[in-house]
Design brief:
Oligomer: heterodimer
Distance between the termini of chain A: 41 Å
Order of helices and strands of chain B: EEEEEEEEEE
Distance between the termini of chain B: 37 Å
Structural class of chain B: mainly beta
Number of strands of chain A: 12
Largest sheet of chain B: 6 strands, mixed
Largest sheet of chain A: 6 strands, mixed
Strand content of chain A: over 45%
Number of helices of chain B: 0
Chain lengths: ~110, ~110
């Protein structure tokens, strides 16, 4: 079974600074997908960024980028120029190529200080 | 277009009562998922529907939990004889098909069992 671990229950960043959220996972698969979801207090999960395991290039979406280390099974999220609206719970998630459900990490609560 | 909607937004019930939670997926999405987010825990997969195929029920925690999807659209998650440990946020998601396609989440139903 796949597992996803987020070792940082809480993180804090100053507005306009950069923060990195950690995620590691365990799988025996070679093809899979990794995701970062944001969950604000409204509860609605929003996809932030996605990485296909077969792609060596790290995914980037505006201020959000990932550091995907396949051999180390690590998938960290970097948020640049942090904004107050970035404050939320962030979940790392895994899905294998044949599977359908997402396996989530325990989440990291990000606080942004003005 | 409308996103995934869920009703009710909040539900308070007494231990032992049955509850029904509803999910309206995005129109045209053939895949539908239910997840549970318990306090202090991450999100866990419950059940998955894809088209007319038999649902994947592997995540249902007990036989008190069941779900159906009528006409390939609306889904209802039913919890019979609710227990206090069933208190959680129940999230529904839908996607075009499976594989790499993004899962879009609804706002969830917060269930409180007294």
């Amino acid at each position: 079974a796949q597992t996803v671990t987020q070792s940082q229950p809480e993180m804090s960043v100053q507005e306009a600074e950069t923060v990195t959220l950690s995620c590691t996972y365990d799988t025996s698969e070679s093809d899979y997908y990794l995701f970062w979801y944001k969950q604000p207090p409204s509860r609605q999960m929003i996809l932030v960024i996605r990485q296909e395991a077969y792609k060596q290039q790290n995914a980037t979406e505006n201020r959000f980028s990932v550091n995907f280390q396949k051999a180390a099974k690590s998938f960290s999220l970097k948020i640049s120029d942090s904004q107050l609206g970035d404050a939320a719970m962030y979940f790392c998630a895994y899905r294998n190529n044949a599977g359908n459900m997402l396996t989530f990490g325990g989440g990291t609560r990000l606080m942004v200080k003005p | 277009g409308a996103g995934v909607s869920q009703s009710p937004s909040n539900k308070v019930t007494e231990k032992g009562k049955d509850v029904e939670l509803r999910c309206d997926p995005i129109s045209g999405h053939t895949a539908l998922y239910w997840y549970r987010q318990s306090l202090g825990q991450g999100l866990e997969f419950l059940i998955y529907f894809q088209g007319n195929s038999a649902p994947d029920k592997s995540g249902l925690p007990s036989d008190r939990f069941s779900a159906e999807r009528t006409g390939g659209s609306v889904s209802t998650l039913t919890i019979q004889r609710t227990q206090q440990e069933d208190s959680a946020v129940y999230l529904c998601a839908s996607s075009l098909i499976t594989g790499a396609h993004e899962q879009f989440f609804g706002p969830g139903t917060r269930l409180t069992v007294l």
